[in-house]
# Entry
Amino acid sequence: MSANLNLTNAKKKILMIVANPAVSPTTGWPVGFWWAEVTHPYWVFTEAGYDVEIRSPQGGALQADGYSDPEDASGYSAHDILSLGFKKSPTHAALLQNTKSIDDVDPQAYDGIFLTGGQSPMYTFRGNAKLEALVARFYEGGKVTALVCHAACLLLDTTLTNGDLLVKG
# Structure
């Protein structure tokens, strides 16, 4: 038997942050998260054996951007059968119906954080001091810290405890 054998069998845990619904001040349209940026990483993480907890900055029910919906009349994302399956699965769809807020997140309980995109992060992530501080805590704690697509707007203002921007330079 190897001396390096991990006998705890504890699953690693990813915190996935998905944007709350908003209305675009430019178009007046409702905006939300992008289906594929939630469902595809969720699938990869869970298939690799990770537990994934989905939260949003404010908590509550989440809404997707229309064009990301595989059932949208535009047909823009009609090819996305993974998102369609997630959406049609009562167990998976429920993960987006009553999310917890980020208020009581302890980064020590997770191995990494993953922030998803869509159009809503431009309005619900940008300028969100609580979310900026949370991302900085994960990063400074040596945790895997990943932001995709429009979620990256958060990095414009995220500062570390020393006052430097996380993406200085």
The two ends are 48 Å apart (CA to CA). The chain has five helices and six strands. The CA atoms of residues 8 and 84 lie 35 Å apart.
